[in-house]
């Protein structure tokens, strides 16, 4: 039997209330293609084998920035050609794949009002990848990238929170959805050139729970990473508050040249 959804907003409360009837009347199915599935014990939702295979990238990625490794580079290399000369504060990036194809469709679906099951299934894949990452040990906190309060009111939820809550539950670590706060309205990153994105987010985040960070290994969760400006700004704030390590976990890493965070 599937696990009832966690309650983080009023929509989740509604889903929780109708959960027994849904379990009785509707069999478990892949949230993307609706193929019948049998979720593992304790799992809210899972993709079918075919969708799972298409969603997870098997191409080697740079441990530090999450981009594809060019031919000739080894997984043992600390950095790739794209990030070798960059000043990166985070320790590494874990991503399921590129922001394209079925994974892009899943991320878009997860942002919809009815996308909780898609987000839960995507989070299961990402949590598995995090757990299987050999260089990442002993995560202490899972912290989602926040969104501005007006955007949250309009949407009703934070997509990164949906991912983060499932990952924290799967990894059995503390989930801190309110650890970060956006201090001001910022322009949409996708509307800006890469050189302007860092300035756009500079000073735009504040750590609300600094007492939790000293010595902690933090998993910063978001749905998509492109330029990395948002993750870099947040990482800087958390390290200044005493975090020992910050690792970024995203559902998708946008190919070079795509706009976004």
Automatic annotation (TrEMBL):
Residues 163-257 form the Phosphoribosyltransferase domain. InterPro entries: ComF/GntX_DNA_util-trans, DZR_2, PRTase-like, PRTase_dom. Residues 23-83 form the Double zinc ribbon domain. Gene3D superfamilies: 3.40.50.2020. It comes from the Bacteria. CDD domains: PRTases_typeI. Belongs to the ComF/GntX family. This is ComF family protein.
């Amino acid at each position: 039997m599937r696990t009832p959804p966690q309650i983080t907003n009023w929509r989740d409360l509604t889903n929780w209330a109708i959960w027994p009837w849904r379990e009785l009347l509707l069999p478990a199915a892949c949230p993307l293609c609706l193929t019948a599935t049998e979720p593992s014990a304790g799992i809210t939702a899972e993709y079918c084998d075919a969708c799972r295979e298409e969603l997870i990238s098997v191409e080697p990625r740079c441990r530090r920035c999450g981009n594809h490794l060019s031919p000739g580079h080894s997984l043992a290399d600390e950095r790739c050609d794209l990030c070798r000369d960059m000043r990166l504060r985070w320790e590494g990036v874990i991503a399921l794949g590129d922001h394209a194809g079925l994974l892009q469709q899943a991320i878009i679906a997860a942002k919809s009002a009815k996308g909780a099951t898609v987000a839960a299934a995507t989070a299961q894949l990402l949590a598995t990848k995090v757990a299987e990452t050999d260089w990442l040990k002993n995560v202490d906190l899972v912290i989602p990238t926040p969104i501005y309060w007006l955007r949250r009111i309009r949407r009703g939820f934070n997509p990164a929170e949906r991912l983060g809550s499932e990952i924290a539950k799967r990894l059995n670590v503390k989930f801190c959805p309110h650890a970060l706060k956006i201090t001001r309205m910022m322009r949409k990153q996708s509307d800006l050139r890469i050189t302007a994105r860092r300035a756009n987010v500079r000073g735009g985040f504040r750590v609300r729970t600094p007492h939790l960070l000293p010595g902690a290994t933090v998993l910063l969760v978001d749905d998509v990473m492109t330029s990395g400006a948002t993750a870099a700004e947040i990482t800087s704030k958390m390290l200044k508050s005493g975090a020992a390590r910050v690792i970024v976990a995203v559902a998708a890493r946008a190919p070079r040249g795509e706009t976004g965070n």
